[in-house]
Amino acid sequence: MLSKIFNRKYRAAWALIAVVALLAVSMTVPPVRAWAEGVLAQFRVAKISVVSIDSSRLQDLGGSSVLSKQISQLLSDSVTVTKKPGAPKPVANAAQASQTAGFQVRLPASRTDAPQFVVQGGAAFQFVVNRARAQSLLDQAGASNLQLPASIDGALIKVNIPDGIAAGYGECPNLAQSADSSAMRGSPGRTMINCVILTEVPSPTVDTPPDLNVQQIAELGLQFTGMTKDQAHAYAQTVDWTSTLVVPIPTNAAQYKKVTVDGVDGYLIQRPLDDAPQYALVWVKNGIIYAIGGLGNDTATALAMANSLK
What is the SS3 assignment for the chain? Predict the structure, then answer.
């Protein structure tokens, strides 16, 4: 999921918004999207964790394959959007951003230049799990050894994503423009080279049935991404699935390391592309998910910004 921070489709301005919007499918496995929300039972993010996954199976399921279409149909039939996200709204300053978004925006003292602000409206949706259809998709994907628990059938998952903000520092494009706008076209190496973007989003809430075994669901998702049963069980034991945002990073596509940032643990994720290397610094503090993203290999600016937030 965090790999989408580096995807043109989700320009850097709403990198973290895209991540939060996909929290309910944090394992980023198409066939398990039908039940992955259960991993986040009573979810409210308090910390971050990162796990490397084998993305080859996911790539095989993409495109216009019959299975991919069946997955899309399952989601279409099962997901109900209860609140559509509004368009990004430009605001003049931090005070307006705080008032509009409904939480206190923090800005870095290390920057003396005035940022460009936008507020992104939140969203909400709910999902009813159809175990039989989801298991059938797993079987067709060659993972019939992974059996979904019977308790998941008919489970109702509700996801609510609050409003968030983005503050663009430097020579950033118009952050309020949509990804399809001509103002946002062009390679990131040209449009974002002198732009660093700070995003802040209050933790979403995810409600699931109380009897759902979230660790069991997490282990199935991890096995689907390439872990052995023992590896998945060992990793799942290290995570509190009710309070942790688990960020899957495709093996060999990005590098990451745990860092101390803003007084808490976070992760610095880097994608070493030859033409435009990219980075994202991600952490959680006091119920707010923060991310700072930009281009290049020099991450000192991002760390300085994070450690000077006030």
Answer: CHHHHHCHHHCHHHHHHHHHHCHHHCCCCHHHCCCHHHHHCCECCCEEEEEEECCHHHHHCCCCCHHHHHHHHHHHHHEEEEECCCCCEEECCHHHHHHHHCCCCCCECCCCCCCEEEEECCEEEEEECCHHHHHHHHHHCCCCCCCCCHHHCCCEEEEEECCEEEEEEECCCCCCCCCCCHHHCCCHHHHCCCEEEEEEEECCEEECCCCCCHHHHHHHHHHHCCCCHHHHHHHHCCCCCCCEEEEEEECCCCEEEEEEECCEEEEEEEECCCCCCEEEEEEEECCEEEEEEEECCCCHHHHHHHCCEC
Rg of the chain, C-alpha, whole Å: 19
Considering only residues 108 and 274, tell me which one the structure prediction assigns the higher pLDDT. 108
- Which sequence spans correspond to the domains of the chain? 2-306
In angstroms, the CA 201 to CA 131 distance is: 32
> Is the C-alpha dihedral spanning 165, 170, 173, 174 positive or negative?
positive
Query: What is the pLDDT at residue 3?
Result: 35
- Residue 163: its pLDDT value, please? 92
List beta partners, residue 202. 288
Whether 143 shows a pLDDT value over 70: the answer reads yes
- Tell me the two tokens of residue 105: 């925006």
- Cα 178 to Cα 84, 174, 205, distances in angstroms: 15, 9, 26
> What is the model's pTM?
0.82
Alpha-carbon gap, residue 234 to 63, rounded angstroms: 33
Choose from 8-22, 26-40, 89-103, 159-173 the range with maximum mean pLDDT.
Answer: 89-103
